[in-house]
Amino acid sequence: MCLDTCHRHKTKPKPKTPSPAPSTTTRPLNILLTNGRFPATIDLARQLHLAHHTITVVDPMHYHVCRFSRSVHKSIHVPAPHVDPSGYIAAVSSAVSSENIDLIIPMHEEIFYLAACNDQAILQRLFAPPLEPLIALHNKWEFTRLLTRAGLAAPKTWLCRSRADVEKLDRTMALALKPVFGRACAGVYKLTPGKPIPAGLDVREDNHYVAQEWLVGRRLCSYAVVRAGRVRAFAVYPVEDTIDGSSAVSFVSVEHRGVREYVEGLVRVLGEVDGQVALDLVDVEGRGVVAIECNPRATSGIHLFSRTRALAEALVGDGDGVWEARPGARRQLMPGMLMWDRSGGYLAHMKRLMGSKDVLFSTRDLMPSLMQPFLLTSYYKICQERKMKLPEMFQWDLTWEPEGEELARVRKRVDGFVDGFVERGAAVDSVEA
Description:
InterPro entries: ATP-grasp, ATP-grasp_PylC-type. By secondary structure, this protein is an alpha/beta fold. It contains 15 helices and 17 strands. The chain has three domains: 138 residues, Rossmann fold (3-Layer(aba) Sandwich), CATH 3.40.50; 157 residues, D-amino Acid Aminotransferase, Chain A, domain 1, CATH 3.30.470.20; 59 residues, Dna Ligase, domain 1 (2-Layer Sandwich).
C-alpha cells in the first residue's frame, strides 16, 4: 500500500517512518459523497477509489469536477438543499436506494440538512454525529462552551444578540465579530480599539454573533476522522497562502502534539460519535493552542492524505490504529496559488508553489484538469445569473442558514445538549440582550 504522505501507528507509539499495513476493510463499499464540486471531494473520491470502493456523488450543479473523474462511478444531479431541502433529501434517499449505498460522507454544509432529516435510510448511513453535537460544534458560541466542558483553552467570548450587545463590549481589546452560523470570512469583522462599529454589521435575533478576543500567534488547522469516539486519522497544517485571508490554498503537514491532545480532549466529551472534526486554532505564545472555531465536516486537511489509502482505512477499515499525515507532506490548489496577491513573502510563496504537488492534477485522471476552462466558464455564467461573486456562488446552494421556527427549534435542542455539560454562562463570558 502506498504511504507516501502518511504513516500508521497505534494510539500511543509514534514511529518516525512510514509503516505499511495491509487493508483491513472487510469488503469494497458503495460510498456517496454529498457534493462533487470541491477539490476535497475529488481528492477523497480518488483516495477511496484507490482502496477499491465505488464512488457516487450528488450535486445541485450539472457540471462539476467530479463529473469528469475516472474515480467517480456516477454523478447524480439533485435539488439544492438551500433552496429545496425536502427535494434534496428525497433525491439523496433515491440515490441511496438506486446505487445500493453503504456509507454517506458529507463534504460541506449539506451535512446539516441530512442530519436533521427523518429518513432512516440516510441517517443509518450518514458519517456524522447526531444533530445536537453536530450543531454544537458548528455554532461558534456553543462550541466555546463545549471547549470549557472539555477543560480546553478557549478564547474569551461574548454572545451578541443585537447591536446593543455589541456596543456594550469591552472596546479596549481587539475583537473578532463572527456570525454564530458562518463560514470562512463571510460576515466577519475585526473591532479595533478606538474605531467605530462597522455600519454593515447585521446582528439581530435571527442572526446572533459572537465576539472573540483577537488572538495573535501561529494560525493552524487540524483535520480528524473520528469513529466511535476515537480519532482514527489526523493532520495539522499551518495557514500560509490564502486567497481571502482565511481559505488556505497550500498545505504542508506538521507535527504538533499540543494540537493532537487538544483534539482528543474535545472528542472525548462528544461521546461515541462518528464524523469529521476540523479545527481552526491559534498557537499563542505562553498560552498554547486555542481553537477559535470548528468545521464538523470535510475540509482541506483531506489533501494531506492524497494518493494513499489512509483515509479509506480510517473511515471504513476494521483496524484500530491512527493514521497521521506524514510531516512535510505538501499539496496545493494551483488556481488558488496563482491568485495569491499578498505583498511580502513572495520568495517563500514561490518556493511553495514550485515545491508542492497540485491536488487536482493526476496523470491517471486527467479529465478534471483538462475540463477546468469549461468548468470556470460554467461557474462564471452562474455567477452572472445569480449576481454573486465566485466564492459565494460556489457555496450558496449548499449552505445551511436556519431561520424562524427552524432556528428556534435548533437553538432549543443544542442549548439542551450543551447544558447537559455546562451550566449556562458559568464557564464563558456572555453579554445578555
